[in-house]
């Protein structure tokens, strides 16, 4: 049987710290094989680790139009590739490269999978709400109607898709996690780590509100915030300096082994997010044997069940209490929690399992194989 030809479209891969980028890069590394040929279409500068076709965007002289990343070249390439494809998979929402796959799927009569990657979540929709609803009405609704199946990374995201009005089948497949080598006993600093985009939805504001009280009680501990040094990060830095928040360090984004070193050197990881469809940094921290404090804005209730951290309400009091409780534990207990977290990740979140699910999903949609049991009508 000839290889299934799948067109994978993503608006860009320039946000290296974003969970969507991490997922897409790993999938394009592991998914293609003897049975699947993946054709990557995107805009912007080529990602060195993801071979594909990358196209320039148009209307550079008109910023508000250019922000939607229009690309006539990408649209034409999508239509051409769709004619030879067995399946189209679109990643993300709210940009024109997320619209082109729907139009191409209809024109070529090819099945379409959409992975919104949390962009239809309740809290995510609150940001730039008017622009998103206008974009949905003018561009995205018709393109989304072409979807044969949607991909959610958790039950929580699947529920949000249904609440938004999506009635097509939904495949629930998590994001896989890499596992750093554990060379001997790690040296854990008295440090609480936040790593990721410095966006209001991540709960940075709550973290900055509660940390002064925690630092006053535990003056030997440091909060380290690591993320891309963009305008949002600079605003948070300036605010923290003006408020004289103690024991607080901001660092630029890190990648590769340096990222894993961050996780492995911290005693705790914290993500007080308002909304996550998955939360890649949670699984990465656990894979690095670092216990986690996470709000119930992310679907990680398993932190409690697996005794690997704290899953807390989205309140300042709950965040402050969890931080103090975690810091007060003996180092040996935090290490035990970290080991249990890594064992959980190895058991349930390997990339091999996620890739196998994706292959089964593609075979069902593109080849008429039996419907997988993780797809819900």
From TrEMBL:
Residue ranges of domain Glycosyl transferase family in the record: 189-344
Entry's EC annotation: 2.4.-.-
InterPro entries: Glyco_trans_1, Glyco_trans_4-like_N, Glycosyltransferase_grp1
GO molecular function: glycosyltransferase activity
Ranges of residues in domain Glycosyltransferase subfamily 4-like N-terminal: 19-176
Keywords: Glycosyltransferase, Transferase
Pfam families assigned to the protein according to its UniProt record, in alphabetical order: Glyco_trans_4_4 (PF13579), Glycos_transf_1 (PF00534)
PANTHER family in the cross-refs: SULFOQUINOVOSYL TRANSFERASE SQD2
Protein name: Glycosyltransferase
